[in-house]
């Protein structure tokens, strides 16, 4: 790797833009086809396929396809990569818009295409920035620059316009040897390790002899260290295991909010719960009840609380809540039994739970008038719900996609609880991808996690992110198993995403310095 660019054609300086000959144009379009195909293959690295090595190979293909390009061409290829990545990976938004949002097929296709096209701007920006800031080809570009900017773009996507951190590269590594890094650096640290692995793989491809061996050795050290870290017990058990039952009512989304369905829904959840009063904790999913709290507080819920107290069982129930004094609606969780309390969802889903620019969009198309789409966000710093004698970190639906928000309840919380309504997405990739995200939260925090969903996949997840039990989809069922409350804090709980982002900035600074030194 000590050779100059003139001696090593693999790292030649980017030439000035020239008019393409026929052969050059053919080569350009073959590169475009390569990145689009690579992007289409990328989601196979995630659940339910879990081909995690693709999360190393696919970014390496993008890095290689952006060599010796103008900024405009690199941006274009990054956008094509994003079209494949998000077009295949989050196409399930079409199901929510068309099947349950009642938009026509052309409109649903258009909205889905616009969403995918917008998300594709993030990998386009990645490729454009790398080419703009680091035009020279070198080993540092692949080992430092591409991985660092990849992670910083992911982090920005998880924040911008309330955030959409779906398909972050790190989630694909929940089953890989790299997962041992998650309790230290979180999912973005896993993304960094995966992107760095892609860079190491690409440099090893370009090199030969001892330099190739050294690069592959670096890859081995990275993965071997992660394996060793996976054996570290970051948290410790506290108290005895709890028997927990998760109620999966499987009320179809299409009829769930219809008034004639309400009585049947109440009866089904009561009946399924009554068979499991021996459990310490019973969890109902998000919006299990389709009446507001004040409508069922004195009758149905009071009777349920009395039964729970008689059997020394605690319940967590998802339901909408209306504050008559403020006129605000909340998507909430209610604890019943030994202690009553409320959790109000803080991170709402745009267009699903509230409509941005409501005065302009509400009523424009039927999709913007979905049931329960006028919620308010719950306040920050809410007291933790108590369940079975332990404080729990509660999240509703895709709130658990934001690790930095989950750790705000730690290390006080001894258990993680997620209540979700996945019925919006039918038989698509979304429930599987969401379950993978939940597993990452358990692994990052060193806490067992229970996940109750309306129609699957409900799950019990241990503190290592491993699935202990799951339910089939589209069945009314109850999942009962044992969970272990835990105390202590992983490094990620203590530090959050700061160290990973700081490491990325250091990598960029080193890469920039190396490029300038090379230029001089």
Radius of gyration computed on alpha carbons: 25 Å
Poorly predicted ranges (pLDDT <50, ≥5 residues)?
A: 1-22
The largest sheet is:
6 strands, mixed
Structural class: alpha/beta
Mean pLDDT: 91
Widest β-sheet, arrangement of strands: 6-5-4-3-2-13
Structure summary, number of beta strands: 14
Tally of alpha and pi helices: 16
Taken as a percent bin, the fraction of beta residues is 5-15%
Membrane topology: Multi-pass membrane protein
Pathway: Protein modification; lipoprotein biosynthesis (N-acyl transfer)
GO cellular component, one term: plasma membrane
Enzyme class: transferase
Description:
- The strands form three sheets. The chain has a six-stranded mixed beta sheet with strand order 6-5-4-3-2-13.
- The chain has 520 residues and is of the alpha/beta class.
- Helix 7 packs antiparallel against helix 16 (498-519) and helix 8 runs antiparallel to helix 9.
- 45% of the residues lie in helices and 14% in strands.
- A hairpin with a 4-residue loop joins strand 5 and strand 6 (341-344).
- InterPro entries: Apolipo_AcylTrfase, C-N_Hydrolase, C-N_Hydrolase_sf, LNT_N.
- Keywords: Acyltransferase, Cell membrane, Lipoprotein, Membrane, Transferase, Transmembrane, Transmembrane helix.
């Amino acid at each position: 790797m000590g050779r100059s660019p003139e001696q090593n054609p693999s790292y030649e300086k980017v030439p000035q833009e020239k008019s393409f000959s026929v052969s050059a144009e053919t080569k350009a379009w073959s590169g475009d086809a390569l990145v689009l195909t690579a992007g289409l293959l990328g989601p196979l690295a995630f659940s339910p396929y879990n081909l995690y090595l693709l999360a190393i190979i696919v970014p390496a293909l993008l890095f290689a396809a952006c060599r010796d390009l103008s900024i405009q061409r690199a941006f274009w290829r990054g956008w094509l990569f994003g079209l494949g990545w998000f077009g295949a990976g989050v196409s399930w938004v079409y199901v929510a818009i068309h099947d349950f949002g009642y938009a026509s097929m052309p409109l649903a296709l258009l909205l889905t295409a616009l969403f995918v096209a917008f998300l594709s701007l993030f990998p386009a920006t990645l490729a454009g920035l790398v080419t703009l800031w680091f035009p020279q080809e070198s080993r540092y570009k692949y080992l430092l620059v591409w991985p660092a900017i990849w992670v910083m773009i992911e982090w920005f996507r998880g924040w911008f316009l309330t955030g959409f951190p779906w398909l972050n590269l790190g989630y694909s590594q929940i089953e890989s040897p790299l997962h041992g890094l998650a309790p230290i650096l979180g999912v973005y640290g896993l993304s960094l390790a995966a992107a760095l692995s892609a860079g190491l793989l690409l440099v090893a491809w370009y090199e030969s002899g001892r330099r190739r061996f050294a690069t592959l050795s670096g890859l081995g050290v990275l993965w071997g260290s992660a394996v060793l870290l996976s054996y570290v017990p970051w948290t410790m058990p506290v108290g005895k295991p709890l028997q927990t039952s998760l109620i999966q009512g499987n009320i179809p989304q299409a009829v769930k909010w219809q008034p004639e369905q309400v009585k049947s829904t109440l009866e089904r959840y009561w009946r399924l719960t009554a068979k499991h009063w021996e459990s310490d904790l019973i969890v109902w999913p998000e919006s299990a009840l389709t009446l507001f709290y004040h409508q069922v507080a004195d009758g149905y819920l009071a009777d349920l609380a009395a039964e729970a107290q008689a059997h020394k069982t605690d319940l967590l129930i998802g339901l909408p809540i209306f504050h008559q004094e403020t006129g605000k609606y909340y998507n909430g969780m209610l604890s019943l039994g030994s202690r009553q309390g409320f959790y109000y969802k803080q991170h709402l889903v745009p267009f699903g739970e509230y409509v941005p620019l409501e005065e302009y969009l509400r009523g424009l198309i039927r999709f913007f008038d979905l049931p329960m789409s006028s919620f308010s966000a719950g306040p920050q710093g809410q007291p933790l719900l108590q369940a079975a004698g332990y404080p729990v970190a509660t999240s509703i639906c895709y709130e658990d996609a934001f690790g930095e928000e989950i750790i705000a309840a730690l290390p006080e919380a001894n258990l993680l609880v997620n209540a979700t309504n996945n019925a919006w997405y039918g038989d698509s990739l979304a429930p599987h991808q969401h379950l993978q995200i939940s597993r990452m939260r358990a692994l990052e925090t060193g806490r067992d996690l229970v996940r109750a969903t309306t129609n699957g996949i409900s799950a019990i997840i241990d503190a290592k992110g491993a699935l202990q039990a799951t339910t089939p989809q589209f069945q009314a069922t109850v999942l009962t198993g044992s969970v272990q409350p835990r105390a202590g804090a992983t490094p990620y709980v203590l530090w959050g995403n700061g160290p990973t982002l700081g490491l990325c900035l250091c990598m960029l600074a080193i890469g920039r310095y190396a490029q300038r030194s090379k230029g001089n």
